[in-house]
């Protein structure tokens, strides 16, 4: 796997999402219930950044129209989204957070 | 428990599709028939005034509520282009426009409504447009050409969205609103003022406190319409769009003897979306319901309400408990702003603002909280949906707000919301 460092652990707080651009891809790093997840940052329903959204119950909710996506699988959990977002493997080594593209 | 083997859903819009889906999700395996008078499978209406209307030289976006194979795979009998002409409530039968009779164990009225008409602007006139259906949106879209001038009658959410989309297509727009300000029924004056500045920034002409005094409509689409306002202003427009509200479709309910609210015109339903007939339920734009915090019954025209009432009605029909309706939430996208509203408008609220009410910014961002006795009941957010979502528990629980703390931008809204909830959780 091609691991790329994207952030350090002190850059992301609990229940927060961070917008990250890697190799031209817009990604969102989420910290939810002490676990890290990475998804595409652009909502599949309309152009909005999930990193501006709301984390709850293992899902990220889009700030525009409250479409919910499962952080683990990327699955669209509720309307108005019908298409899931892509998720990416994430790992932490020491203070560094990596994504695999 | 009586076993139900056939459910009829009248209407094939958002509420209908969500109800059919909820019935299957909650284990109902009997017959479901959905009857709709439009030619299209259930679709979402919010995009009609936005991306669908804007799709001038680009493909129209897909707006179906359910995936194409949903109705077949879930064994939902979808009958399009058919009207239910009457409901025989005592026989529990519906009479369809094609002459057939359909028996039901339970019936859901999800009939929505039609665009309220102004007699001076007949829909049959080539220069006049109303917007409720996909066909309406397509017809209006065909009239929107750069350099044309259109008049929008009605400064509510829909009229403003239409104006915004038209401006984005290079169309000149004049908006006529009888109230002294836009969105007068739903937002405070300070928000209307910001909105009106934004509208002016985008080049629309806005006439508030004006009614249409006289109209000349052309016989063919090539000629302009001429509107005269009460102050004598004359407006020439290639097309006139009338967006003055929704008339709920309640003829079937009335004919079946169901209670219909005199003030808001909707089919009266209880907290479980049951009408005055125990076998008939209703959901969406056509209903009137008294909610937890509201003294009077309301007809709530929102995408969320259609979804929530559809879900609640489906559960109630099956004799199952449903999670209570979510806190009212609404959005509108216009003039490059995502504007969201939490809670219902009330005349007795004092508003505090966090952020800047700068209408000229490329991406304005602010949140307004409407307080009564220091507790929040309505919130308006511009380009701050995630923050608004974080504030929701404060409104749901009516937690006391300290204005200076709310407005202090050195703390994020999320951190602020967490702090207020933590404070409420500590005893004493």
UniProtKB/TrEMBL annotation, chain A:
Single Gene Ontology MF annotation: dioxygenase activity
Cofactor(s) the protein needs: [2Fe-2S] cluster
Source superkingdom: Bacteria
Record keyword Iron present: yes
Keywords linked to the UniProt accession: 2Fe-2S, Dioxygenase, Iron, Iron-sulfur, Metal-binding, Oxidoreductase
Pfam families (UniProt xref): Rieske (PF00355)
UniProt-listed SUPFAM superfamilies: ISP domain (SSF50022)
Residues covered by the Rieske domain: 4-99
Stretch forming the signal peptide: none
PANTHER family: FERREDOXIN-RELATED (PTHR21496), RIESKE DOMAIN-CONTAINING PROTEIN (PTHR21496:SF0)
Family: Belongs to the bacterial ring-hydroxylating dioxygenase ferredoxin component family.
Name this polypeptide is given: 3-phenylpropionate/trans-cinnamate dioxygenase ferredoxin subunit
Organism whose genome encodes this protein: Eoetvoesiella caeni
Organism classification: Bacteria, Pseudomonadati, Pseudomonadota, Betaproteobacteria, Burkholderiales
